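dumping this here so i dont lose it
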């Protein structure tokens, strides 16, 4: 199942945004209140999406100013990849969206689609809110 979040224009450079999100501790700052048991160590992080599942991710790719990817660890119940996609609009503005690719059977996909879509849209909204406080 492939999902794309809403696109947002963020008033920061693509390089600043990608550097911020590529740090798992900072990724945790984007997580909505429904997320419980947040932990981060090195390039790995874990958390629980309340009512859905536990997630265990690692920062797998960082293309400065273009893309930051988090992939699930092998023991994750839902194999997935979260890509933060960045497109510079100007020196101080970046269009951002999240692409989520989860490998789910069709029955589970029907149940998980709405909560996962809500999750990635909340991540983008929180990134936009944090940028208003200035990402550094």
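and the seq i came up w/
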């Amino acid at each position: 199942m492939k999902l794309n979040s809403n696109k947002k224009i963020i008033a920061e450079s693509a390089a600043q945004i990608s550097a911020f999100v590529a740090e798992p501790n900072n990724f945790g700052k984007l997580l909505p209140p429904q997320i419980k048991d947040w932990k981060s160590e090195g390039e790995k992080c874990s958390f629980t999406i309340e009512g859905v599942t536990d997630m265990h991710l690692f920062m797998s790719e960082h293309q400065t100013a273009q893309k930051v990817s988090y992939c699930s660890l092998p023991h994750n119940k839902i194999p997935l990849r979260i890509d933060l996609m960045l497109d510079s609009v100007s020196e101080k503005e970046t269009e951002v969206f999240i692409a989520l690719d989860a490998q789910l059977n069709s029955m589970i996909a029907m149940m998980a689609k709405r909560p996962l879509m809500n999750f990635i849209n909340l991540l983008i909204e929180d990134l936009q809110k944090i940028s208003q406080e200035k990402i550094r």
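The mean pLDDT is 90.
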